[in-house]
Write a structure and sequence with these properties.
By secondary structure, the chain is an alpha/beta fold. The protein has two domains: 49 residues, Winged helix-like DNA-binding domain superfamily/Winged helix DNA-binding domain (Arc Repressor Mutant, subunit A), CATH 1.10.10; 266 residues, Rossmann fold (3-Layer(aba) Sandwich). It is built from 16 helices and nine strands. Strands 1, 2, 3, 4, 5, 6, 7, 8 and 9 form a nine-stranded mixed sheet that branches. Helix 2 packs across helix 3. The longest helix has 18 residues. It is elongated and about 85 Å long. The two termini are 16 Å apart.
């Protein structure tokens, strides 16, 4: 707090000016008349009230951003951009995910220039982002699926559907990968990727101007478990090897590197190194279960833009400089 920089008289005057301005809705001219000071002095007192913590303003709308948290995380990890959505009033993990998905949709809509080709992954978060995007969010964007995702279960092919919806809402074209995310044999994967149609989609994905993707949990609730690619026991084995989650279908450790090279060799899609070298790589991550994978991503250059919630932002600042941590805690309170 900076109150020590004000004398007691000015502090009391600032409190009274703030009460008249914020509680009673009076203009600065009216406050000046009531307190027998100039409107310019009123303006200075109100600015001091904000700066010293006498007044704290919180925007509680679900689409409000946590600007101080954004600045702290962006500075700590060297991100190009970040959006931190508020968790205020959220009653479930699903609601929090939808709120972050809406923030991602808003960010993509405002992105200028809009990418000529946008690479997208799949999963529940990406499904929600696609649903939140308005029609006409851009025009003529080519949307390309960056990792395999043909479902092996009754849940259906959400991977291609996500790319199709995002493209349709931009009056653009979709290029999908109608193949599994993980194959049984490395040789099979290599053979399929040599197919002219598949190779064409993968080449388009490798040359996209921007990427939009989520991150999966390392546990039984993984989308790769629900889609039939892995069992909960197999994911647990990956956790024992150090997995903290998956990015574009590849289970990574805290160092941002796949924890199982054999599994990675059977995984279809864009390699993580392409994400790492991308100019615009937008990661959308929400919820307590993804704090570790979010940290691995921002620490190891697996995104340039992070769209997340305030709880995840606070977790990313644990162990950082005290001023940064306090900024986020004050916003969350």
């Amino acid at each position: 707090m900076l109150r020590g920089l004000m004398n007691s008289s000015d502090e009391l005057m600032a409190v009274r000016a703030a009460e008249l301005y914020y509680d009673e809705g009076r203009t600065q001219d009216e406050i000046g008349s009531a307190l027998h000071i100039t409107r310019w002095k009123v303006g200075r007192l109100l600015a001091q009230a904000r700066a010293t913590g006498i007044v704290r303003i919180e925007i509680v709308h679900p689409r409000a951003r946590r600007v101080l948290a954004e600045q702290a995380v962006k500075r700590r990890y060297g991100l190009k951009d970040i959006v931190v959505a508020s968790s205020a009033g959220v009653s479930s993990a699903e609601e929090l995910q939808r709120r972050v998905a809406q923030a991602a949709a808003d960010y993509l809509t405002a992105l200028r220039p809009a990418p000529h080709t946008l690479g997208v992954s799949w999963g529940r978060t990406m499904h929600d982002v696609a649903a939140c995007l308005p029609r006409g969010w851009a025009h003529g964007v080519g949307v390309v699926q960056i990792n395999g995702g043909l479902s092996l279960t009754k849940y259906g092919d959400t991977a291609s559907a996500t790319a199709l919806v995002i493209a349709q809402k931009a009056a653009g074209s979709a290029h999908v990968l109608p193949i599994p995310a993980i194959l049984e044999h490395t040789a099979t994967k290599r053979s399929i990727e040599r197919d002219r149609a598949i190779a064409g989609v993968l080449d388009r994905a490798a040359h996209a101007q921007a990427y939009l993707f989520g991150a999966g949990v390392a546990g039984a609730d993984s989308a790769l478990v629900h889609s039939g690619y892995l069992t909960a026991e197999e994911v647990e084995a990956l956790v024992r090897k150090g997995a903290v989650g998956d990015v574009v279908g590849r289970f990574i450790g805290v160092d941002g590197v796949p924890v199982d090279s054999e599994l990675d060799s059977r995984t279809v899609g864009l390699p993580l190194e392409r994400i790492r070298t991308a100019e615009t790589a937008i990661a959308v991550v929400a919820g307590e279960g993804k704090h570790e994978v979010a940290r691995a991503m921002v620490t190891n250059g697996l995104c340039t833009v992070l769209i997340t919630d305030d709880g995840t932002a606070a977790a990313l600042l644990e162990g950082s400089a005290e001023p940064e941590r306090r900024e986020v805690q004050e916003q969350a309170s």
